[in-house]
């Protein structure tokens, strides 16, 4: 254990356990060769149908007669309200929008257990109504507070007891992390990995996978869902020469370029110290103005939003719509239901630019505050936008590095996969995840809201809440499949 | 530098600089013997008068005709709005209250500079209208965003340039920290200590003090203001045997009981690892419900609040009042003004219980969410309340450890001083600050919302936002004067 690794975990054995599991891309419990067939069988086992319905047929939900807010009759789950946002930006500094309000903290939990000394993670084939492809690979537990307090009145959540107080498990990861600030107001979920040594009955929709297997699956589009990706991102990359030799797996060190090893190992080669990175973020959180105030949903009409029988949408045809769906399904806590979903109008782009600086790989990140951000700016990918929204925007107001990323030369592209955002709240929300390794001719001088950081620095911040936004966490999880 | 110290700062020289300054309780720049006379002269130089006025005479401010919110005509500074709060507590689970809304981040900054190798801190004798005793010792800079963006239209803020982007200074401390969650909605300020090596012109109301001198002044009631205390709390205690010998000041190690040294030095003797402490806090943030929604100020009347010509107050005579004052002063950015203030009805009690566990001093803290907390529960003192509010409350709903603390035996009391909260927003807000060192017969088993932590663990969390509430930070600064 180096001093730097202790920043993340006191217990060196946790890091070693993660690393050993990451080195193995196959397992006798769920052989990699059998995974695709197993996963297809689970999808086939759950026939279901999602169809748009008019708001008038959204059973159980209603528009509040005074505010126009769309909520559930029980007062639980979530509400679609309105938000008025004022910023000090030069381009669109004041706007109104619908926003998902869900002032409670859910649990995204992955259960881990050692088999023959190797940590395995219990993953779930789970259907969500907004998924483009029916079933995706999900955490062991994905529970809203309403879920675990029993508001659903459906079946109880499997394996939830391992994440509850009084559990007999070792907590490996535990932090509140934010979700999509453009669509959610102040939403956070608790990201957990807990290890049990009890016997675990494996239900039909679940399977044990090593970290190496899961990281392999991250190369496949729309397979590992967003909830799984955010939890996985909190697991340190855990690449360390010393640990390799300790495990007798020195072959692995040959797989990683030295600059990546250096980036993941500690503070040594970082362009800025972690104190400087935090001070950069604090500066932008303090100086940049973002004043978001709840307003009744009826009031978003003054911001160009219109409500029809089937959607709340913006007159420009941009951003997103609020719609209603009917779900007939077999693998959820209850068999069928209706709910609103937020449907983005266009595919998004989440891109990281990386380059080696003085022998250490660095990642270019930005400090970005979305309308629903709880703490002001969070650390976000180099490019984070829906490019279609900027088609006819003057060049000086287009996001930095968007053109560079869209025109990247093929040989610099390390990762280019379409992934889905959370299918429980978003309908067909798809982002292109892109990682580009620029050459050393890429300029190191960047605008003040951007900063070069190492993989290690980002990972160390994930022990705390609200530093990395969900899009960056999700993208970081994907980079674990390549580096 | 041990591995643990690197948790706080990469740069070991920063810790050594703080420690050396803390060891010196006198300085040729401002001799300790001369301080009281200098301070009295500054108070005398600033004749001022604060008097209550009716709301009708609150020039520049008005109650909004629709919402009843009390705000400034410019739309800047702060607003008094309403808040509706629902919790899962068993005692008073739903209430309404007025709340100060100020959605901007100010700067609380202390400028530091080395003289003959010793760090000195530029402190200010500053008047605030709500202070019980006119002038208190304040940070170099205490600026709201309105201040530094020039809304005051008054004199510019002295020394602010050292805390602005492009400064040529070394940032020693820089973190956003919360303020009183019972009275402020989501308020945070940026706590900074920056070191300059430029020449600094010392204005009349300012003086250079060592950390040792300032810590000595923390034993005097109502002298070091809250804004100074919160910034000071972010400076590590920096007690380390190794560093003592490095400085040739080994005598100092004799001043500290071994258990305190151990508590301040690192993770070694801690009852819970820092991961466990964070997981404990995360658990309580996730499980406990606190749903606070902005409402118009007029709507707090349904919660028992009444507005008279001179005050908004609760029918029970408890909690606080919103009042208006006229200020005639000479040492502020502008010479006279009127403003609302929040005036607590009773003196508060902020108490820490400490005890030695296995040779290491531990502090008992609680996870506590106030109405205006941004992130849910923060870590708070063992006891944090206005005792008068609980006079006729059934024993099972009285705060834990309140009776123990109020009946503490004199020989266990290590610190017992009255201190003021922020005089710019609060009128005569006074708390009794109490530190009790309990014997080893004090029970280690505590209710689930309490946890035993070391001084080191608390200090290491101060590099991040929103872990320690302002009352605990303020109390921690005071403990630096005794340990």
Helicity range of chain A: 10-25%
| Shape category of chain A | globular
- The span between the termini of chain A is 21 Å
Largest interface, Cβ cutoff 8 Å:
A-B, 42 and 42 residues
Based on helices, strands and strand pairing, what is the structural class of chain A? alpha+beta
- What kind of sheet is the major sheet of chain A? 7 strands, mixed
**Strand content range of chain A:** 25-35%
Give the overall pLDDT of chain A as a whole number: 89
Task: Pick out the low-confidence regions of chain A.
Answer: 1-10, 240-254
Counting DSSP H or I runs of 4 or more residues, the number of helices of chain A is: 12
Describe the structure in your own words:
The structure is a homodimer of 483-residue chains. The relative contact order of chain A is 0.18. The longest helix of chain A is centred in the middle third of the chain and has 14 residues. Chain A has 12 helices and 25 strands. In chain A, the strands form 4 sheets. In chain A, strands 6, 7, 8, 9, 10, 12 and 13 form a 7-stranded mixed β-sheet that branches. In chain A, strands 19, 20, 21, 22, 23, 24 and 25 form a 7-stranded mixed β-sheet that branches. In chain A, strands 2, 3, 4, 5, 11 and 14 form a 6-stranded mixed β-sheet that branches. In chain A, 21% of the residues lie in helices and 32% in strands. The N terminus of chain A is likely disordered. In chain A, a hairpin with a 6-residue loop joins strand 4 and strand 5. Chain A has one domain. Chain A has 483 residues and is α+β, with helices and mostly antiparallel strands. The radius of gyration of chain A is 22 Å and the shape is globular. Chains A and B meet through helix 1, strand 10, helix 9 and strand 14 of A and helix 1, strand 10, helix 9 and strand 14 of B.
């Amino acid at each position: 254990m180096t001093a730097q690794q202790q920043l993340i975990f006191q217990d060196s054995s946790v890091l070693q356990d993660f690393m050993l599991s990451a080195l193995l891309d196959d397992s006798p419990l769920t052989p990699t060769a059998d995974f695709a067939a197993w996963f297809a069988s689970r999808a086939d086992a759950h026939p279901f149908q999602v169809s748009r319905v008019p708001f008038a047929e959204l059973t159980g939900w209603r528009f509040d007669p005074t505010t126009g807010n769309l909520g559930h009759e029980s007062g639980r789950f979530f509400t679609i309200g309105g938000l008025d946002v004022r910023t000090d930006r030069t381009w669109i500094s004041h706007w109104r929008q619908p926003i998902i309000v869900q002032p409670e903290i859910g649990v995204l939990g992955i259960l881990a257990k050692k088999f023959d000394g190797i940590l395995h993670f219990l993953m779930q084939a789970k259907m969500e109504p907004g998924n483009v492809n029916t079933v995706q690979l999900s955490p062991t537990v994905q529970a809203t507070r309403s879920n675990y307090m029993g508001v659903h009145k459906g079946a109880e959540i499997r394996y939830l007891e391992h994440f509850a107080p009084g559990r007999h498990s070792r907590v490996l990861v535990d932090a509140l992390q934010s979700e999509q600030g453009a669509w959610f107001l102040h939403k956070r979920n608790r990201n957990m990995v807990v290890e049990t040594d009890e016997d675990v009955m494996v239900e039909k929709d679940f399977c044990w996978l090593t970290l190496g297997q899961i990281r392999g699956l991250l190369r496949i589009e729309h397979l590992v869902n967003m909830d799984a990706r955010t939890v996985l991102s909190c697991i340190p990359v855990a690449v360390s020469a010393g640990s390799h030799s300790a495990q007798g797996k020195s072959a692995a060190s040959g797989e990683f370029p030295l600059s990546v090893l250096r980036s993941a190992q500690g503070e040594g080669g970082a362009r800025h110290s972690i104190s400087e990175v935090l001070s950069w973020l604090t500066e932008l959180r303090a100086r940049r103005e973002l004043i978001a105030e709840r307003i009744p949903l009826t009031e978003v009409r003054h911001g160009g939003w219109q409500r029809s029988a089937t959607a709340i949408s913006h007159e420009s045809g941009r951003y997103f719509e609020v719609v209603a769906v009917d779900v007939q399904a077999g693998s959820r806590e209850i068999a069928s239901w209706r709910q609103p979903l937020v449907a983005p109008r266009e595919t998004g782009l989440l891109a990281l630019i990386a380059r080696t600086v003085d022998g250490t790989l660095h990642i270019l990140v930005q400090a970005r505050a979305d309308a629903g951000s709880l703490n002001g700016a969070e650390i976000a990918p180099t490019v984070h936008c829906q490019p279609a929204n900027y088609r006819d925007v003057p060049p000086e107001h287009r996001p930095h590095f968007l053109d560079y990323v869209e025109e990247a030369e093929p040989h610099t592209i390390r990762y280019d996969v379409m992934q889905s955002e959370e299918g429980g709240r978003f309908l067909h929300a798809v982002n292109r995840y892109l990682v580009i390794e620029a050459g050393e001719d890429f300029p190191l001088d960047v605008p003040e809201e951007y900063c070069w950081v190492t993989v290690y620095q980002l990972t160390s911040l994930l022990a705390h809440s609200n530093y990395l936004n969900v899009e960056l966490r999700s993208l970081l999880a994907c980079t674990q499949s390549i580096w």
